[in-house]
């Protein structure tokens, strides 16, 4: 290795800034350095997107998670650039060490975060701070290492052929930004759908360490002592073996982690283009559980939930019904159980949920084979897009069986603009019913939904139905045992003509049916919890 402390002749650059002794022509050397910049930039952006995606999946609220990860990383990159000034004397060895560390930390970050989530329970409760601190720690460490890359690469490229600082920065940043573009596009369109989050991060780490090791050992090996070259070869091979071993074991790890999260009764686990879908139970008398991106959508209280969602909306004309969401077919089951229904249009954005609802034995048994009914017509589409294309006054009833408004990707489906489209699709006598999440756990979100529905020109009748265990509006956001099932369910019934009366329709076949007395009590429970003065949520100003 070049001795950085050796004295330089008067007027000459220090030894560590002397022209590099390259095995190739300078032009080829510059090209190889810029190619390495390109690869490292692509890998760095993939690490960032991996953390954002995994944090959003595990913790929800993608805007917050993206803001935390990216702001911490950008801050850390600045600190890393300053710290790298001290490594310029050892640019080649320092860069190799950075890339080895970055490959290990970035490549294993997704697996480490998922392991903490799986084996310490939910991100709430006593573990709330630990996993979030781990996310920040990974963001900080990866940002520091990415930030330190640029000064060292600048030093290496200048040692190949000196040029003005502006030209060198332009070349370096051009390769860096193009690499970031490729990494940013490869993650959602190639890595994530083909390999999944864990394997794609491990592969990215392998590419990262190979690029860094190849550049230093192939182009700047004369800057290293024989011992340093051996250490670098051992570190590169050791990192590759570790990442390869993790990749071989990733399927077993995912199965074990999934069982830690969902229990040992997982029957189906698939990754659709939209979300991860997990089915538990549903056979041999065991209750069926449906999880979408880790959140319980169908649990032991599903019949009570779907009756409370659907039946009050059908206490009036209901020949034409639109169900937004509800791809599991359970809301359709309740609609079809009521006499007088002529057509049910169901809009579900995920075709995989529809496929499972048609074919999975446990789910088809639960939804009473609703998809086999000729009155049911399914569209694989987004709710917003479908409503825009719906002629005015088409439906007697619209059932919004949608994800929680607190999820960033669902916020637009609880906006004033969205409810305006629903109002246009309703017949003059039509009714809308919205599942607005738990009330006791998140009262502001529930009453913001109610205020938003009113802002769209609809009259509302809110009600809160407790779980079979508590049968009250009081309760926490999650049931005991961490199943994720709320202890209360909040709904908003709305109509354009007048405030709708909360009553149940006559007739129909409804096992363990919700009673009128319970529905009346649900309306009173909502009034006791009412919040006033809340503003409507819009597309440009979401308030959830």
Automatic annotation (TrEMBL):
<comment type="similarity">
    <text>Belongs to the spermidine/spermine synthase family.</text>
</comment>
<feature type="transmembrane region" description="Helical">
    <location>
        <begin position="63"/>
        <end position="84"/>
    </location>
</feature>
<keyword id="KW-0812">Transmembrane</keyword>
<dbReference type="InterPro" id="IPR030373">
    <property type="entry name" value="PABS_CS"/>
</dbReference>
<comment type="function">
    <text>Catalyzes the irreversible transfer of a propylamine group from the amino donor S-adenosylmethioninamine (decarboxy-AdoMet) to putrescine (1,4-diaminobutane) to yield spermidine.</text>
</comment>
<keyword id="KW-0808">Transferase</keyword>
<feature type="transmembrane region" description="Helical">
    <location>
        <begin position="232"/>
        <end position="250"/>
    </location>
</feature>
<feature type="transmembrane region" description="Helical">
    <location>
        <begin position="174"/>
        <end position="195"/>
    </location>
</feature>
<feature type="domain" description="PABS">
    <location>
        <begin position="247"/>
        <end position="484"/>
    </location>
</feature>
<keyword id="KW-0620">Polyamine biosynthesis</keyword>
<dbReference type="GO" id="GO:0004766">
    <property type="term" value="F:spermidine synthase activity"/>
</dbReference>
<comment type="pathway">
    <text>Amine and polyamine biosynthesis; spermidine biosynthesis; spermidine from putrescine: step 1/1.</text>
</comment>
<feature type="binding site">
    <location>
        <position position="348"/>
    </location>
    <ligand>
        <name>S-methyl-5'-thioadenosine</name>
    </ligand>
</feature>
<dbReference type="InterPro" id="IPR036259">
    <property type="entry name" value="MFS_trans_sf"/>
</dbReference>
<protein>
    <recommendedName>
        <fullName>Polyamine aminopropyltransferase</fullName>
        <ecNumber>2.5.1.16</ecNumber>
    </recommendedName>
</protein>
<keyword id="KW-0745">Spermidine biosynthesis</keyword>
<dbReference type="InterPro" id="IPR030374">
    <property type="entry name" value="PABS"/>
</dbReference>
<feature type="binding site">
    <location>
        <position position="275"/>
    </location>
    <ligand>
        <name>S-methyl-5'-thioadenosine</name>
    </ligand>
</feature>
<feature type="region of interest" description="Disordered">
    <location>
        <begin position="466"/>
        <end position="488"/>
    </location>
</feature>
<dbReference type="InterPro" id="IPR029063">
    <property type="entry name" value="SAM-dependent_MTases_sf"/>
</dbReference>
<feature type="transmembrane region" description="Helical">
    <location>
        <begin position="96"/>
        <end position="121"/>
    </location>
</feature>
<feature type="transmembrane region" description="Helical">
    <location>
        <begin position="31"/>
        <end position="57"/>
    </location>
</feature>
<feature type="binding site">
    <location>
        <position position="328"/>
    </location>
    <ligand>
        <name>spermidine</name>
    </ligand>
</feature>
<keyword id="KW-1133">Transmembrane helix</keyword>
<dbReference type="InterPro" id="IPR001045">
    <property type="entry name" value="Spermi_synthase"/>
</dbReference>
<keyword id="KW-1003">Cell membrane</keyword>
<keyword id="KW-0472">Membrane</keyword>
<dbReference type="Pfam" id="PF01564">
    <property type="entry name" value="Spermine_synth"/>
</dbReference>
<feature type="transmembrane region" description="Helical">
    <location>
        <begin position="133"/>
        <end position="153"/>
    </location>
</feature>
<feature type="compositionally biased region" description="Low complexity">
    <location>
        <begin position="471"/>
        <end position="480"/>
    </location>
</feature>
<feature type="active site" description="Proton acceptor">
    <location>
        <position position="401"/>
    </location>
</feature>
<feature type="transmembrane region" description="Helical">
    <location>
        <begin position="201"/>
        <end position="220"/>
    </location>
</feature>
<comment type="subunit">
    <text>Homodimer or homotetramer.</text>
</comment>
<feature type="binding site">
    <location>
        <position position="306"/>
    </location>
    <ligand>
        <name>spermidine</name>
    </ligand>
</feature>
């Amino acid at each position: 290795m070049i001795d950085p402390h050796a004295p330089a002749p008067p007027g000459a650059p220090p030894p560590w800034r002397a022209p590099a002794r390259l095995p190739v022509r300078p032009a080829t050397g510059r090209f190889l350095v810029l190619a390495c910049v390109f690869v490292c930039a692509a890998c760095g952006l993939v690490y960032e997107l991996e953390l954002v995606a995994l944090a959003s999946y595990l913790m929800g609220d993608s805007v917050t998670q993206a803001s935390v990860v990216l702001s911490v990383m950008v801050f850390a990159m600045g600190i890393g650039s300053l710290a790298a000034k001290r490594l310029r004397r050892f640019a080649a060895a320092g860069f190799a060490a950075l890339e080895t560390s970055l490959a290990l930390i970035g490549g294993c970050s997704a697996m480490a975060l998922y392991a903490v989530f799986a084996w310490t329970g939910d991100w709430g409760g006593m573990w709330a701070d630990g996993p979030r601190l781990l996310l920040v720690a990974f963001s900080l460490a990866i940002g520091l290492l990415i930030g330190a890359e640029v000064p060292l690469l600048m030093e290496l490229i200048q040692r190949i052929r000196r040029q003005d600082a502006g030209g060198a920065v332009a070349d370096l940043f051009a390769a860096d930004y193009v690499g970031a573009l490729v990494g940013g596009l490869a993650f959602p369109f190639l890595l994530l759908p083909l390999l999944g989050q864990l394997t794609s991060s491990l592969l990215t780490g392998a590419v990262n360490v190979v690029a860094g090791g190849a550049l230093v050992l192939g182009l700047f090996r004369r800057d290293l002592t024989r011992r340093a070259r051996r250490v670098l070869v051992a570190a590169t091979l050791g990192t590759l073996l570790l990442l390869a071993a993790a990749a071989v074991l990733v399927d077993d790890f995912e199965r074990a982690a999934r069982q830690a999260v969902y229990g040992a009764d997982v029957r189906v686990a698939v990754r659709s283009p939209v979300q991860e879908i997990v089915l538990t139970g549903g056979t041999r008398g065991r209750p069926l559980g449906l999880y979408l991106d880790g959140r319980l959508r169908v649990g032991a209280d599903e019949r009570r939930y779907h009756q409370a969602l659907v039946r009050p909306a059908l206490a009036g004309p209901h020949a034409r019904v639109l169900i937004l969401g509800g791809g599991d077919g359970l809301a359709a089951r309740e609609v079809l159980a009521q006499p007088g229904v002529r057509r049910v249009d169901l809009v579900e954005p995920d075709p995989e949920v529809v496929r499972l609802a048609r074919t999975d034995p446990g789910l088809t048994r639960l939804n009473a084979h609703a998809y086999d009914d000729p009155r049911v017509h399914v569209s694989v589409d987004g709710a917003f897009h479908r409503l825009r294309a719906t002629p005015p006054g088409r439906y007697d009833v619209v059932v919004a069986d949608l994800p929680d408004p607190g999820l960033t990707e669902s916020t637009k489906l609880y906006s004033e603009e969205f409810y305006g489209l629903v109002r246009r699709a309703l017949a003059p006598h039509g009714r809308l019913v919205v599942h607005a999440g738990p009330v006791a756990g998140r009262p502001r979100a529930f009453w913001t939904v109610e205020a938003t529905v009113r802002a769209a020109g609809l009259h509302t009748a809110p009600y809160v139905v407790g779980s079979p265990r508590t049968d009250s509006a009081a309760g926490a956001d999650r049931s005991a045992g961490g199943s994720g099932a709320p202890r209360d369910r909040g709904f908003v019934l709305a109509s354009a003509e007048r405030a709708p009366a909360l009553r149940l329709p006559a007739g129909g076949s409804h096992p363990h049916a919700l009673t009128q007395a319970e529905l009346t009590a649900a309306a009173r429970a909502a009034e006791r919890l009412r919040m006033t003065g809340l503003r409507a949520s819009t597309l440009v100003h979401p308030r959830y």
